[in-house]
Specification:
heterodimer, A: 113 residues, mainly beta, seven-stranded mixed β-sheet, globular, B: 110 residues, six-stranded mixed β-sheet, four-stranded antiparallel β-sheet, 12 strands
């Protein structure tokens, strides 16, 4: 079975802290994604990556950065966490190409206080 | 840019009722279309998908047909169960990006 693993299910951080959310997939997928999910707004794409060291901004990249040093790992970084970044963060991965299934992690609930 | 629009919820039904959740999309080229489901406290699970026009995706009694002429991918089920209560997301995948709708909450009562 394909597995997308997010390192932390629940985190509480203070305003101004640097936060790392890690995502690892075990199926050699080229494409990886970070979303945030908020009530009434659905899933919004923050960043995605289609290869090692490659990244593209999604719809809401402000306040976030990402790192893809190895193919299996895609990290989301909040340089200075703010309360409006309190949300559920979801990582996903897929093989490059048309029609492939996208697999999601279980999500990371981040609360910034 | 590409986008997905789905009906607002919540959708409230009695058990064994017929379900339709509408989804329309805007995209260039030939996107793949998906329905994902999220049960309370869990991540997203793929429910079904369709990769080209007129394809029908189906799973667990749910169906959706890729209609290019109406740019739609409506989700249907003939007889819902209480266990189907969840949030349903329509999504498209195009040029390496996966775009979601806002989600529709389904509540099924006995």
């Amino acid at each position: 079975d394909v597995k997308v693993t997010q390192s932390s299910r629940y985190l509480v951080k203070r305003t101004g802290e640097k936060v790392f959310l890690e995502c690892v997939q075990d199926m050699d997928h080229e494409n990886m994604f970070w979303y945030r999910q908020d009530p009434g707004l659905g899933l919004r794409l923050i960043y995605f990556s289609y290869d090692v060291k490659m990244k593209e901004k999604g719809d809401i990249p402000e306040g976030y950065s990402v790192s893809r040093e190895k193919k299996e790992r895609f990290s989301l970084i909040l340089e200075s966490a703010s309360t409006n970044q309190t949300s559920m963060y979801l990582c996903a991965s897929t093989r490059r190409g048309w029609g492939n299934t996208i697999y999601f992690g279980e999500g990371s609930w981040l609360t910034v206080v | 840019g590409d986008s997905v629009t789905q009906m607002e919820g919540p959708v409230t039904l009695s058990e064994e009722a017929f379900l339709t959740i509408n989804c329309t999309y805007t995209a260039t080229g030939y996107p793949s279309l998906f329905w994902y489901v999220q049960y309370p406290g869990e991540g997203l699970q793929l429910l079904l998908k369709a990769t080209k026009a007129d394809d029908k995706g189906s799973n667990k009694g749910f169906e959706a047909t890729y209609r290019k002429e109406t740019t739609s991918f409506h989700l249907e089920k003939g007889s819902v169960q209480v266990s189907d209560s969840a949030v349903y997301f329509c999504a498209l995948y195009n040029t390496d990006k996966l775009i979601f709708g806002t989600g529709t909450r389904l509540q099924v009562f006995p």
